[in-house]
Amino acid sequence: MADMIRAEGLVKRYKEVEALRGLDLVVPEGTVLALLGPNGAGKTTAVRCLTTLLVPDEGRAEIAGVDVVADPQGVRSRIGLSGQYAAVDEYLTGFENLTMVGRLYGMGKAQARARARELLDRFDLADAGDRPSKTYSGGMRRRLDLAGALVAAPPVLVLDEPTTGLDVRARQQMWDVIRELVASGATLLLTTQYLEEADKLADDIVVIDRGEAIARGTADELKSQAGGERIEVVLAESSDVERVRGLLATATQGEVAVDDRTVTVAVDQGVHALRRFLDDLDREGIAVLDVGLRRPTLDDVFLSLTGHAAEDGDEPAGSDRHPSRKEVSA
Question: Domains of the chain (ranges plus CATH)?
Answer without folding.
Answer: 3-223+310-329 (3.40.50.300), 229-294 (3.30.70.2470)
